[in-house]
Amino acid sequence: MSKKVLVLGEVREGSLRNVSFEAIAAAKQIADGGEIVGVLIGDAVAGVANELVAYGADRVVTVEHPHLKSYTSDGYSQAFMAVVGEESPEAIVFGHTALGKDLSPKIASKLQSGLVSDVTEIEGAGDSALFIRPIYSGKAFEKVKVKDGIVFVTIRPNNIAPLTKDESRSGGVSSLAVDITNLRTIIKEVVRKSAEGVDLSEAKVVVAGGRGVKSEEGFEPLKELANVLGGAVGASRGACDAEYCDYSLQIGQTGKVVTPDLYIAAGISGAIQHLAGMSNSKVIVAINKDPEANIFKVADYGIVGDLFEVVPMLIEEFKALKANA
Amino acid sequence: MNIYVLVKRTFDTEEKIVVSGGKIQEDGAEFIINPYDEYAIEEAIQKRDALGGKVTVVTIGGEDAEKQLRTALAMGADEAVLINTEDDLDELDQYSSAYILAEYLKDKEVDLILAGNVAIDGGSGQVGPRLADLLGINYVTTITSLEIDGTNVKIVRDIEGDSEVLETTLPLLVTAQQGLNEPRYPSLPGIMKAKKKPLEELELDDLDIDEDDVEVKVETVEIYLPPQKAAGRVLDGELQAQVKELVNLLHTEAKVI
Ligand SMILES: Cc1cc2nc3c(=O)[nH]c(=O)nc-3n(C[C@H](O)[C@H](O)[C@H](O)COP(=O)(O)OP(=O)(O)OC[C@H]3O[C@@H](n4cnc5c(N)ncnc54)[C@H](O)[C@@H]3O)c2cc1C
Ligand SMILES: Cc1cc2nc3c(=O)[nH]c(=O)nc-3n(C[C@H](O)[C@H](O)[C@H](O)COP(=O)(O)OP(=O)(O)OC[C@H]3O[C@@H](n4cnc5c(N)ncnc54)[C@H](O)[C@@H]3O)c2cc1C
């Protein structure tokens, strides 16, 4: 049976995050011919509504209110539940981002529904859809069926391909007035530490450094390599704790989960908590001077050697490749 | 301050994982307190020591979870509660876990509840926020700092590497992120004392929960290991040649560049 699906579009600094387009693709599969309604929540978000349509939403509902300028679970849940009340969806898709992780359990609780978090793949469609998600820190996978009630899932960024953007698609955009009251949390300040440029969790190439990078300056060649490849720089906890780089670069269970096409790990030993954040990457390259390092167990290609020799050589080779392309 | 900590007994994911008959093989495996719950326990103890009150650790699980509760008591928690579902339930999901915890906590005087931000095995991060919603109290996830002054609370939380500073009030549920504190190891006297601390065991009947109330909403139909990757290729030869080969492989074989 086809389903009507709500997809929450996540707007950050005025733009939609890529995971929202991926969520529409996931919704399409769950909808099995049913309608897909994008939902945008914020103080001024209607401007990006057409982009959700271009990526496959049939129409968009916006909820705008000054109290929705910053995310709070109270504010956003009031807004989202109002849309649920209007639309009576049979399924809901969020991105498994900081916002999605924080908000989805509250909505699921209010709907008394199940919630399948951190989905990386969907098998089948409509009522027979099965959801695949990593468990045990990524060492295993489970396939989950929704037994009862609304189908509610959050999807891990960079795993489900978005549909092709089609600017000629059209769909209605309507706004819903909701009174947002009783916010119990007051946001005082957000200290932005994440680097400008490519969003780490959505990058196609990630060059990550560990304690083996040895200093803040040691990260410079890694940054250059990432630049040459159009990717982002990441790090292990080891490198963050040693203050070689900021915690916003941390990849792993505590940090960001990434699934790039290419992950280059330099001077990282490969602890399970680190692997939990990157082992799903399509191709993994390890550079480590210890041939016994655990990272080689998950690597597709490995070089045993000093990263300070290997990384500069890689920069030159990739530059040469690009020049000849 | 009446402080509750949600503690989950988890499989130590540093261990090798074996799947047989569609299930994770648990025989002989190491079980630990979920690492993020250790931060929660430590924070609860520190807050109690500073502000007075009592720390109660609560878990849903089987008889075996008593070990993790004793460890929490040895760290310094005052009391423990084991909600034993072994005989009553074959299945449990995040919906039913939160429901059971809410039934236990709904008549208690609660100032602060601490949980882990995520369980390293199930990995959904749902139980804390779901429970807060059922109890009608506010929650803040992935916190790295907690200051309490009367009923006013100041928190720093981690959002994808950025830090958000916020204010709220008790009663409150928070979930712990790495960086909140350094969990202590149980001391020998702590371990001795823990043996005498109260550990209450409850079943669904004691909480007036009907099995129908905790019917799961989602069901695992299959568990499997990731497809075996072909063994990675560690290159050899002269370093410059290895680098050339690697770039070539990424371009022509893996086709990612
Ligand atoms: C609850 C919990 C959560 C955690 N979450 C995370 C997380 O999210 N992310 C994370 O990364 N970790 C996490 N950790 C920490 C994790 O257990 C490891 O301690 C950490 O990943 C180690 O970082 P590392 O590999 O950089 O350092 P190390 O383990 O010290 O490894 C350094 C590596 O560099 C190599 N090396 C040294 N010099 C060179 C050189 N010149 N050239 C090449 N190689 C060199 C060494 O051979 C070694 O393999 C967590 C731990 C806990 C308990
Ligand atoms: C047949 C079957 C039997 C199961 N039996 C058990 C069982 O006996 N024990 C068990 O723990 N899981 C059991 N599970 C798994 C259970 O469904 C989930 O582990 C549980 O719903 C928590 O979800 P999660 O792992 O995603 O935790 P998350 O939502 O990621 O956990 C976040 C935090 O919530 C708190 N929390 C989570 N679970 C518990 C708990 N059980 N008690 C106290 N606090 C908790 C902790 O503070 C934890 O850090 C069973 C599953 C199946 C299918």
How far apart the termini of chain A lie comes to: 49 Å
Largest interface, by Cβ-Cβ below 8 angstroms: which chains and how many residues each? A-B, 91 and 75 residues
> In CATH, what is the homologous superfamily of the largest domain in chain A?
HUPs
Percent of residues in helices of chain B: 25-40%
| SS summary, helix count of chain B | 6
Cα Rg of chain A: 21 Å
Task: Report a brief summary of the structure.
Chain A is α/β, with parallel strands linked by helices and 325 residues long.
Descriptive labels:
heterodimer, A: 325 residues, alpha/beta, Rossmann fold, 7-stranded parallel β-sheet, 5-stranded parallel β-sheet, B: 257 residues, 9-stranded mixed β-sheet, two-stranded antiparallel ribbon, 6 helices, 31% strand, binds flavin-adenine dinucleotide
Fold topology:
The complex is a heterodimer of chains A (325) and B (257).
Chain A: E1 5-9, E2 11-12, E3 15-16, H1 18-31, E4 36-42, H2 49-54, E5 59-64, H3 73-87, E6 91-95, H4 98-111, E7 116-119, E8 121-123, E9 130-135, E10 140-146, E11 151-155, E12 173-175, E13 186-191, E14 205-209, H5 219-228, E15 232-235, H6 237-241, E16 262-266, H7 272-275, E17 283-288, E18 301-304, H8 307-324
Parallel strand pairs in A: 1-4, 1-6, 4-5, 5-12, 6-11, 7-11, 14-15, 14-16, 16-17, 17-18
Antiparallel strand pairs in A: 2-3, 8-9, 9-10
Chain B: E1 2-6, E2 9-11, E3 19-20, E4 23-24, E5 31-33, H1 35-51, E6 54-61, H2 66-75, E7 79-84, H3 94-105, E8 112-116, H4 127-135, E9 138-149, E10 152-159, E11 162-169, E12 172-176, H5 188-194, E13 199-202, E14 218-224, E15 233-234, H6 239-252
Parallel strand pairs in B: 1-6, 1-8, 6-7, 7-13, 8-12, 9-12
Antiparallel strand pairs in B: 2-5, 3-4, 9-10, 10-11
Bound molecules: flavin-adenine dinucleotide (2 copies).
